[in-house]
Write a structure and sequence with these properties.
There is one protein chain. With 203 residues, this protein is α+β, with helices and mostly antiparallel strands. The chain is built from 7 helices and 8 strands. The chain has an 8-stranded mixed beta sheet with strand order 1-2-3-4-5-6-8-7, sandwiched between helices. The two termini are 28 Å apart.
Length: 203
């Protein structure tokens, strides 16, 4: 299986009309579709004020039935080529968080987003998951560009992006309103043709 051997089924591609969100694996992680049984953990982790403060679009307080609705939306969004969402899990099937690419297939670009449950912060989980989803976006989805944004008050998110070869492209001032305060956002991006050199130089 994926967890035992670290392999993933071949031939997954949105462009080939795949009807299932794929399973991706890396050294320590498995990225796979959320299950409805994950909803209580999603509610717990995403509902944490510390997580909400690091993200651009996780609401706080987190509505009671939001986790179920969110999980139910993943497959339709995938089939519409609008969004692909993965749970980030340990090889032992423990849920760490979520990662996604919001897609604009017309322009062959995807916006990267993620959150990690607070107990799993500062363990390199997000950096490893980001590396894997970038590879998937370029190799399997045929994207030309992957970009991401983070609040300027959350530099740890920027470090995840930089470790994966993403370059800061600019700042969006007063772009997001959090708890009644307008906040600035940094934007990062990476193009398909520079991923090889970035991966080559990463230690």
């Amino acid at each position: 299986g994926v967890r035992a051997g670290g392999r993933e089924p071949p031939g997954y591609s949105i462009s080939q009309g795949t009807t299932m969100i794929p399973i991706l694996s890396s050294e320590r992680l498995v990225l796979e579709p959320f299950r409805m049984a994950d909803a209580p953990l999603v509610q717990q982790y995403a509902g944490d004020a510390q997580v909400a403060m690091t993200t651009l679009n996780v609401p706080h307080p987190y509505p009671e039935d939001a986790a179920e609705k969110w999980i139910a939306s993943h497959l339709p969004q995938f089939l519409d080529r609008r969004n692909v969402v993965f749970s980030i899990r340990s090889l032992q099937d423990e849920v760490y968080g979520a990662i996604n690419l919001s897609l604009c297939m017309q322009d062959q670009r995807g916006e990267l987003g993620y959150w990690i449950g607070v107990p799993y912060w500062n363990k390199g989980i997000c950096t490893e998951a980001t590396a894997r989803i970038i590879k998937y976006g370029f190799d399997e989805l045929g994207l030309n560009k992957i970009y991401a944004r983070h609040l300027t008050v959350n530099p740890a998110s920027g470090r995840v992006m930089e470790k994966n070869g993403m370059m800061r492209e600019g700042i969006q001032q007063g772009h997001v309103k959090k708890d009644g305060v307008f906040m600035d956002v940094y934007e990062y991006g990476i193009l398909r043709q520079i991923t090889k050199s970035a991966n080559h130089s990463r230690h």
